[in-house]
Amino acid sequence: MEENKNIPEVPPTENQQTVSPSTAEKRNLISYFKEFLMLFLAVFCGFLAENYRDNQSEIAYAKEYAKSLIKDLENDTVMINGTIEQKLIILKSIDSISELVHQGIAGNMVKGSFYYHSQIVSFSPITIWNDATLIQITQSGNLRYFKNAELVNKISAYYSREGYISGLVESDRTKRNTTLEIKSRILNNYHYKPFSSLLPRKEYEIIDSLMNVLMPLQNSDKDLLNEFANSLENRKFYFTLVISETYPMMKSQAKELILLLKKEYNIK
Q1: What are the residue ranges spanned by the domains of the chain?
Q2: Strand bridging mode 214-216 / 109-111
Q3: What burial letters (b/e) apply to 241-268, b meaning 16+ CB within 10 Å?
Q4: I need a surface site. Which of 43, 59, 114, 151 has the fewest CB within 10 A?
């Protein structure tokens, strides 16, 4: 027992120094911070990747809608050209009837051309707009895929003008009904039948003998004929307006939109 008491105490070396509680706590905080930072970076990078994928998807959707809109606009232009052609034919018939009425009709007899022109002015051609793509992207809220504000504004302006033209057509159809009512009182049905199936198209070639043969009218009252001509003059303003201004403007807007869509989405 005494021997043990005489054993000297060995002082601790540097490697045997104990870690204080404050140092251990500091190391734990650093470790937690590193783990938090790694987790944050992982989540943030995932968010960026997801956002990038969504953005690429939206760009892809926008390009597909752009292609579809371009096709619609090209088809609109074809339809507009066809409608202008029909309206020009009708406008010529309006002028022909006005001239015949102004010259006067003697003995209740007219050439077959009067029946022909009376049939042609019965029409009020409309343009069937190709707006399926626009309806789809607006009703589904996918118009947001187009990020270019100028492009969106031009699309809206184009389709707003479609509505304006539809309003003009509806107005002309109301006037056309007056024309039809007067026409039914003037023409003789028996002589009108050969012309009743004709449409305002260039390819029709009426036999000269039919156009020049004299035919009787059902009613050749001067006042009634003048009323007929006046109803056509009221419609002439509409035809002149859309042929010279409205439709050319629509074609110009369509061309501008097509070029803008192709440039924006690199479409050949």
Answers
A1: 23-265
A2: antiparallel
A3: ebbeebbeebbebbeebbebbeebbeee
A4: 43
